[in-house]
Amino acid sequence: MQNNHHKEHLYKILVIGDLGVGKTSIIKRYVHHNFSPNYRATIGVDFALKVLNWDQETVRLQLWDIAGQERFGNMTRVYYREAMGAFIVFDVTRPASFEAVTKWKEDLDSKLTLANGKHVATVLLANKCDQGRDVLTNNGIKMEQFCQENGFVGWYETSAKENINIDEAANCLVKHIMASENDMLQSEVPDTVTPQLEKDKGGTCSSCFRSQ
Amino acid sequence: MEDLRTRQTPGEETSSSDTLQPNVRGTAAVSSPALCAARLPLPGVMDDEGRVDESRLRMHIFKNGGVSPAERGLAWRFLFGMYPCSSTASERSLLQEQLLVRYKVMKRKWQQVFPSAVRLHLNGTDAELVAAVRYFDERQAQAQQQTQDQSEEVRDRLAFLELQAQILFERVVFDRGELQEAIRIIDKDVPRTNRDLSYYQGEGSGNLLVLRDILITYAAFHPEVSYAQGMNDLCSRFLEVLHSEVDTFWSFSCYMEKFSKDFRADGLHRKIELEAALLKELDPQLYAHLATDNMESFTFCHRWLLLGFQREFEHSDALRLFEILSCDHLELISQQVDRARYQERLARNYSTGEAYLRSAECLGICLLNIMTYTVGTESIQTPLNFSLFVSLQPFAKIKKVHFISH
User: Fold this and answer.
1) Which key words tag this protein in UniProt (chain A) (predicted)?
2) What are chain A's domains?
């Protein structure tokens, strides 16, 4: 079915944020296209897989739905490992959950960097926008500024319940992940050999790689 | 490989078979004094005055794969330690009054410090929750009435106990910030407890508010543990089985004395490490396979271990498994003496017994063998308990599915 030039990407994406902001709901909406008001609190971490067709290429997003309570904070280092992108979610009806955004971003950036030393692409999601709006998100310019200052590649007002902006936000994240991936490939100095264990890329000289 | 990594844990979304039955039990009682004198109809477990032979009770649970649902409420009061096994029925009757009064005093104390937290704040979008608050309020009013109907003699006795309890808790000072944060999280989590259970249907929805009060009271008086996500699920088990607010609080507190470290990051981390070490020892091939795929951190075991498979199995099975795991029978008996007996019983159960017990027995032998040596070169200080071995069962299944299908 797939021709030989068909390229596959597998990206690990983190979904983090204060508890009860709707991380699980966003993932269920995005992956299973449904919504329930009665999800149970996530314990530890849950996983979901979303497959996208992206310019004749296949993108597999491995979504890591991480429990919101800080109690297990020092386990997040393990969860973050090898992630390529992240959503940080807050609840527009609860200003305290927005205050937690910077904490999550700092936690993420302090524990996770890409091979080139840069931070992973992160999109900010202002969820539950169907239920009313926080003062802050009403002011788009302020949010833009917040994103720039805190290193978010973008932000979206989302609603898992009403299916608003979730695909758009994911596409934005994928676009930035791919850009940073290209960036990393190009920035490699041609004379240096950088062994990479990326089995999904099926490179032309795979035998060379294997013999290393 | 990504299939394995992203596959949902089995049973994750399946609602339990109990969803269709309407709840006939209503909102839990405040206390269940009648049970103090109730007889546990298990052969040879209770003497004439009501004392329980603890090791026989544990063995009975293990041997029979749990007790019947009708006996469960009373059995758990002994199993988890709310009733001391050595107590007589008449001693328990006094104890029950003391526990009731202490709990009331404790609850009143945080309610006085945080009057705004006495009631759950509703945002109006959850009609079920609004109804739940109404059922809870009705129960409160009933309980109030019952207190007023008590005889003078009972009232005097309770007043004395109350004075004692007040002295006991007088010096407790709450960390206001911490407790406020705990209440915030509890209020987020309680409505997210498994509400599909029949226990929380109809008038039973009031039990969500009972659960809330128990969790807040626990958090207030155990600041070193406070509240952590998942406790609502665990406590919900006790509430459903005991159907009494006071008894649930004390039984849950007893349980947490042993397991509260699981709710701290380092405690659970250690348990997950042990699980990994155990698999490495028992199935090096599967362990190596997981390691090549960067899964050696075993984070996917987190929920199994924390909640005792509550979300992985059908509800009634999970309850039974929790009971069997909690009986600690294997951990408590002498290894050497009983090994032969297990093997004998195992052989017998292969022909007549049921699947649960069979796997429990298999693991039992496994446990006895393993407990006699340390895993790897590093000696393990934390005891390897039965639940870690049970947690290995899903691996065997995954291995079968994965290796055979590829």
Assistant:
1) GTP-binding, Lipoprotein, Membrane, Nucleotide-binding, Prenylation
2) 7-185 (3.40.50.300)
**Would the pLDDT of B283 be above 50?**
yes
Residues 6+ apart with CB under 8 A from A154: A123, A124, A147, A169, A172, A173, A176
B306 closest CB neighbour out of A44, A48, A73: A44
Task: Pick the closest to residue B26 from B225, B236, B203 (CA basis).
Answer: B203
Is residue A1 over pLDDT 80? no
B208 touches chain A (CB under 8 A): no
User: Does any CB of chain A come closer than 8 Å to the CB of residue B271?
Assistant: no
Q: What is the largest CA-CA distance in chain A?
A: 58
Query: What distance in Å separates residue A119's CA from the closest CA in chain B?
Result: 21
For B76-115, what is the HEC assignment? HHHHCCCCCCCCCHHHHHHHHHHHHHHHHHHHHHHHHHCH
In chain B, domain spans: 15-257, 264-405
Residue A122 has a pLDDT of: 98
- For B340, half-sphere exposure in the C-beta direction (CA atoms, 13 angstrom radius) is 2
Contact list, B266 vs chain A (CB under 8 Å)? 74
Q: Which tens digits make up the pLDDT trace of B43-102?
A: 999 999 999 999 899 999 999 999 999 999 999 999 999 999 999 999 999 999 999 999
Tokens 């693991």 belong to which residue? B363
Q: Is some CB atom of chain B closer than 8 A to the CB atom of A184?
A: no
A6 confidence band (pLDDT: 50, 70, 90): confident
Q: Please return the burial class of B249, using the count of CB atoms within 10 Å of its CB with bins 0-12, 13-18 and 19+.
A: buried
For chain A, helix, strand, coil in percent to 5 are 40, 25, 35
Instruction: Looking at the complex, report in whole angstroms how far the Cα of residue B235 sits from the nearest Cα belonging to chain A.
Output: 14
pTM metric for this prediction? 0.82
The CA distance from B120 to A157, in Å, is 28
Q: State residue A125 phi and psi, 5-degree precision.
A: -115, 120
* Amino acid in the structure at residue A119: H
Q: How confident is the model at residue B328 (pLDDT cuts 50, 70, 90)?
A: confident
Q: How far apart are CA B245 and CA B249, in angstroms?
A: 6
The tokens for A68 are 């919101």
- Nearest C-alpha in B relative to A20: B188
* Structure tokens given for A121: 């692409």
One-letter amino acid for residue B12 of the chain: E
In degrees, rounded to 5, the angle at the alpha carbon of residue B65 between the alpha carbons of residues B60 and B71 is: 65
Helix (H) or strand (E) holding B189: helix B176-189
Long-range contacts from A198-207, C-beta under 8 angstroms, 24+ separation: A200/A8, A200/A9, A200/A10, A201/A7, A201/A8, A202/A8
